[in-house]
Amino acid sequence: MAAPTGPLTLPAVVEELLSEMAAAVRDGAPLLPRLKFVFGSSAVQALDLVDRQSVTLISSPSGRRVYQVLGSSGRTYTCLASCHYCSCPAFAFSVLRKGDSLLCKHLLAVYLSQVTRTCQQLSVSDKQLTDILSAEKTQEA
Ligand SMILES: [Zn+2]
């Protein structure tokens, strides 16, 4: 029986890679060579974002969770790890439109910070979280 795959499913290859990364972290193995092999220069940029603690997990009482990543340009991008989405132009262009990348450096940084448990945590009210999400939409317009 084939499992249905939809937009809410993490691409299998990413999922596979993440468990590989988690194992590498446990064993103290370096992450970069394998990441670079799969993601090229995005891997270096994503690890840099993680090193600079640019990833923040924002959660609200109702259980909604979004990630915010402070990009190298100083802009903040909103990432939804649960449905594999980032608000940056690179994601819209390379991932959604052209389909030649699996993810952008922000999403990769989000996944890496999950694996290495290095993301910042921020609790906000439901109203604040909604505001964060709608502010992001306004910026896109
Ligand atoms: Zn992005």
Automatic annotation (TrEMBL):
Q: Which of UniProt's keywords are assigned here? A: Metal-binding, Zinc, Zinc-finger
User: Organism's domain of life?
Assistant: Eukaryota
What does the record list as GO biological process? double-strand break repair via homologous recombination; protein stabilization
UniProt keyword annotation of Cell cycle present? no
Q: Where is the SWIM-type domain positioned along the sequence?
A: 77-115
Q: Name one GO cellular component term.
A: Shu complex
MF (Gene Ontology): zinc ion binding
**Pfam families per the record?**
SWIM (PF04434)
- Matching InterPro entries, A to Z? Znf_SWIM (IPR007527)
Keyword Zinc annotated? yes
State the protein's name. Zinc finger SWIM-type containing 7
Recorded source organism is Capra hircus (Goat)
